[in-house]
Amino acid sequence: MPIRKILITGDPVLHSRAREVDKIDETVRDIVADMYETMDAAPGVGLAAPQIGQGLRIFVFSWSDENETYRGVAINPTLAVSGIPAEEADEELDSEGCLSIPGERFPLNRYEKAVLTALDLDGQTFQIEATGWLARIFQHEYDHLDGTLYADRLEKPYIKQMKKAIKQMGWGQAGESWMPGEDDLEA
């Protein structure tokens, strides 16, 4: 399956709510296969369909901790979250990046726990209870499906720094993208 270009912030599909997947067919399976290839080539730990120009409620993820490897697809997901930290985001521990804002990383508080419920490629419902980085990944990718980038959630002074970085790169309009494996950009 081919690696696809990743859209950069400013493209309308990234800033719009994605539509539900009506039917899991070969087209959806091909999109998901391309998403895995693209995520792995980027490299990333998650990728949402809008990031490759597909306004569908799909994301893929791949992350390992000391106990387990999590790799899968979430189609038409719902996400329940709880336990956001009260203190400010730690610049090292809570630093987050995004393949649609390559090269930039800023601290962002996320909920401590996330419960993902979604369909897999066989149309079967599954549920994953996550904490730590996996919970962060689910929240980040789920936000993409609602047209929200992590930059939209940043607080001062990071939001100002992010806006400056986007302006300096000439991003913020439709049609900007990068190709994993070819362009010298990474999240």
Keywords, separated by commas or semicolons:
five-stranded antiparallel beta sheet; two-stranded antiparallel ribbon
Plain-language structure description:
By secondary structure, the chain is α+β, with helices and mostly antiparallel strands. It has one domain: Peptide deformylase (Peptide Deformylase). It contains three helices and nine strands; from the N terminus they run βαβββββββααβ. The protein has helices spanning 26-41, 132-145, 158-169; strands at 6-7, 46-48, 58-64, 69-82, 95-97, 105-107, 113-119, 125-131, 177-178. β7 and β8 form a beta hairpin. The model has no long low-confidence stretch (mean pLDDT 93).
In short:
The chain is an alpha+beta fold. The chain has helices spanning 26-41, 132-145, 158-169, and strands at 6-7, 46-48, 58-64, 69-82, 95-97, 105-107, 113-119, 125-131, 177-178. The chain has a single domain, classed as Alpha-Beta Complex (Peptide Deformylase), CATH 3.90.45.10.
Gross CATH architecture = Alpha-Beta Complex
SS-based structural class?
A: alpha+beta
- Low-confidence blocks of residues: none
Helix content: 10-25%
State the domain count: 1
Categorize the overall geometry.
globular
Task: Determine the mean pLDDT.
Answer: 93
| Percentage of β-strand residues | 25-35%
Strand element count: 9
Largest sheet: 5 strands, antiparallel
The CATH topology is Peptide Deformylase
Spatially, the strands of the biggest sheet line up as 2-3-4-7-8
- What is the element string, with H for helices and E for strands? EHEEEEEEEHHE
List the helices and strands and how they pair.
Layout: E1 6-7, H1 26-41, E2 46-48, E3 58-64, E4 69-82, E5 95-97, E6 105-107, E7 113-119, E8 125-131, H2 132-145, H3 158-169, E9 177-178
Antiparallel strand pairs: 1-9, 2-3, 3-4, 4-7, 5-6, 7-8
